[in-house]
Every structure is written in C-alpha cells, then in structure tokens.
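Subject: Folylpolyglutamate synthase

B.,
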Amino acid sequence: MAMLRAGPAHGARPTPNPLVRASASTSSPWRRITSMLSISSITRCKSNDRSLSLRHPLPRCCLSLRGSCKPYLAMPRGNILSQFTRAVDTRNGMLTLILSEYEEVLRCLSSLITKRTRGDGANRGDQFDLMFDYLKILDLEDAISRLKVIHVAGTKGKGSTCTFTESILRSCGFRTGLFTSPHLIDIRERFRLDGVEICEDKFLDNFWWCWNRLKEKTGDHLQMPSYFRFLTLLAFKIFSAEQVEVAIMEVGLGGKYDATNVVREPIVCGITSLGYDHMEILGNTLGKIAGEKAGIFKKGVPAYTAPQPEEAMTVLVDKASRLSISLQVVSPLDPGQLGTQHLGLNGEHQYINASLAIALSSTWLKTTGNSKGINLDQDNLPEQFIRGLSRASLEGRAQIVPDSFAQQLNSNIGDLTFFLDGAHSPESLEMCAKWFSHVIRVDSLNSENQALKNNYIRKGGHPNSLGKEYLPILLFNCMSVRDPQLLLPRLVNTCSHLGVKFHKALFVPNQSVYNKVSFDAAAPPADAHQSDLSWQLTLQRVWENLVRSEQDPGETSEYGGSLVFPSLPLAIKWLRESALQNRSTQFQVLVTGSLHLVGDVLRLIRK
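Prediction pasted inline below.
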C-alpha cells in the first residue's frame, strides 16, 4: 500500500506557492504522477511549497520534484519524463531526476519569445496600447503612477548610466529599484533591489502573481504579452511590492513603443549617446533613430542628453521644444571632481555616462524634495555622489577576469586573462578597442618595469615580471542582423592605431540561444561538428580580408591566423591548452561583439 504524506514541511512558508496550493494537502496529484510513471507503490513522500520527493522500491529510482507538478498532470502517460532538465546518479547508485520550479519559470518565459525575426517590420509599434490592458489586468496602474521613475533611452551607455544613477541614489540612502537588459547569466540580474539582483524566492512569488493573472485573463481575444513586455510588467510589480523610493528604468529598444514607456509621468528622462543600431526597426538614419528615442520625453518633464551628432541633436531639440521641455546637454565629467577616487566602470566613455547620471540624480533629488542634507553645489560633487560613482559595478562591460582554471592548476603555469566587453555597434566597439588597448599597454609597461627591477632580461615582445610575452587574441561573434563590415574594421583599426595587433582571431557560435531563457550554460550540440557555422565562416572571411588589407607589403607579421570553432567550450579548451603549452606567454583574450557571447564565456570560465 502506498504511504503518502502531504503538507508543508518544517520551516515552510505558511502561504503556499501558487503552483502547488491546489492540491498540496491531498494525495491525488501525487497519485496521478505516480500513475503516469507506472509506479505501483511509494514508500515515502515529502512535500512543501517548493519541493516534492518520491521514492519507490521497484526500479530503485528516486524522483525529486522541486516546485509543482500541476502543469504536467494532464499530460499523456510517460511524457512527464521529457520535462526533466538534468539527470544525475546519486552515490547509492539510484537515479535522481530533478525539475526545479525556477527552471519551470524559465520555460514559461521562453514560451513568450516571439518567433519573428528582429528585422520584421511588423515589430514596429506592435500594438503598444496592449500594455495598458495588461497593466489593468494586473491592477498596476495606480502603482506605476506612484513610482518615482528615472527613464533612460539611448544606443550606447544606457546600462552604465542607469547603474551609475542607481549607485548614486543608493549612496544617498534611498531604496532603489533598477531594471536593465539584457542579462548575462541569470534573468534575475535584470531586477535589482538596493543594488543586488532580486532573490529567487521574491522573483518566483512575483512571477507567478503576474503569470497566473495574465493567463486567466488572456486568450484568443488578447494574447499573453511578449517576453520583454512581460519582464517589464514584472519589474513594475516587483518595484511596487518592494516599495522602492526610486525606480530606474532602462529602455529595451527604441523608446516610443518600448514597454517601459507606459510610465506617463517620470521624474526625469535621459538620452545616452546615439548611434546606428537596430536600424531594421528604428530606421536607417540618425534622425529617425533619435525620433524613436525621444519618444520617452513627456510634457513638462525635465530631460538631459549626452552630446549627440548634429542630425540626432536637431531631432531631440525639436521634440523637446514641442513638449515645452528645456533639453539640457551634459559635458563629460572632469576626473578631478572625483578627488582620489575612480569611476567604478572602466573606459573613457564612462565619463559621459557618469555626467548624465549625475544630472539625472540631482534632478530627481530636487524634484522629489529629497535634496536635504546633500550638497548639490555646482562646483563640487557631493560625497555621496563620489561614493556612488566609484562603487558602481556592471558585469560584461570593460571587465577583466583571470581564468580561474589556470589559477587552480598553478598560478605560475598557463597565464590566461579574459577582457570582456559586450560592445556590438561600431561606436561601442571603437570604445572597447580603446579600453582594451589602454589596459593591456598599461599592464605591459607596469610588468616590464617590474621585470627590469627584478633584473629580468628582455628577449623580445613585452615581458611581464615573470619574463612572459603578451599575446592579444580576439574571441568574437555577433548577431547575423549586424554588419561585420562595419564592426570589425572599427575594432581592428582603433587597436592598430594604438599599437595593438591581434595575434589570432577565434570565431564561435553563442552557447545560449535567442529563443530560450536559461540560467545555466547550454550544452554544446551532441555532435558539435554538425553545427551551422556559416555565419562564423562569414565573419572569418571578413576578418582575413581586413587583416590582409591592413598589412604593408614586405612587412614581417606575427599574425597567427584565425580559427572557427563549432562550440564555445571547444574554443575555451583550446585557449587553456595553448596557455598551458606556452608557459612563457600571457594570453590576453578580448571577448566582444555580443553580450550573449560575454555571458556565455562568464558561465563557462566560472564553472
């Protein structure tokens, strides 16, 4: 006879998770699942609001289900096994299958990703007014009107500007909410409370709160919101539930029709540097792109912008004038204003982003009446502002990460460092090239001075303190909607002008996929050599043509060629093996072209 025990385990929350509340106190759902699995008897069953585990003696299998099984109760017999995302053998030889509630949420989110290509003209607008229907279903209309929002659009530097702004206001003592995109590893990175990504429990509770209500009220007459729209609605729900004092909202794409633009009365708006990106949606001129970005301007709401090309600035000023806005242009921050401190985000372009963040923060403080005790003198930055700017952090932007694998083996064997920057437009790749060239030249000079101090003999190249030579390598991929003929020359030429030439270039497909949300590195194809590498081969051809055109006749080159790898793990493996086999060389790998690629690399090197 089956022995079933149900109900909250010790320490479980008194309010059950929405997914399992329907039958947590009865045996029927668990009996239904055991029937699907052809389990005739159960010797133990435990459940709470986050997990369920079953053990039965017949095939000596242990089944662990974290979260609810309710969505799978109506599935045909046997299909439930296909829902498990990983299987591991336990030490006692019993097979354990695990399905987490978090993975279930990610599958739900993946179902919202539209199948249309980004270049599909139907993406424009896309029934923007539906966002207000979704807000009504979720009863978030009044909650949004009470949020004190800072709204930021732009092509380059949106995430950095929002990060600086959040850090400044948090340093001033306010409870902050920050919504940015995309995420690199975990989707919870998009939702930050007081500078920290939302914890899993709060994320799950708020997700199901939104998901269940929308599922109940949508159907043929009103479809579920698309992926980014749902995430934006979720951000508003989280920030209102957590009662943040300021909500910093980064536009996802464009501005006028972006999901974040349901905010009718933000406190202040900002436009970061504009450039050519998402042209298939926003338009193929800077004027058209600027017009979309200026769509976040609201009548009477103060607005600031970074310096812009004339064509873009003309459009921004005209839009602001028609809304009775005095659009103000910020100047790059003088590093001297930071005193002995430095910006928390690297790169000379960050001084513009920091200056815009200062303007947005100052205006928010004054407009909301929260400037008391904060010296907003024009000549000197308040101490809280300096602290916020210096402590700001944002992964995947001008980030340096030594490879932990080589360090674990032996700190003196195999020197491999990754320089990560998610630049993916011509302008941002130029900034990335300047940053990379600067940091490796400074590193080289510092190491060379140390080497001479320690009486090491220079034998060519750029030795560091252990007599090593530096080898810059490019690890690159970009989305197929982008033009490598515009991206790669900007990167290569800028590096070359600054004295840096890549020894080798590696081209790889991304691990993550665009139509699935995951929190773990996606496994490479079962047969990686069967991967479609046509795009990577195209990138390689563009690269090789570029390198040949840059090389002077008769010039002796140390260029080592380019490689296409069928998967990112194989490329990382090759780099690690090369570092171990060339112990006198420091491999400096610039990872750029795609934030997806940067996130995938971070996943792999941290595993």
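The chain is about 35% helix and 15% strand.

T.
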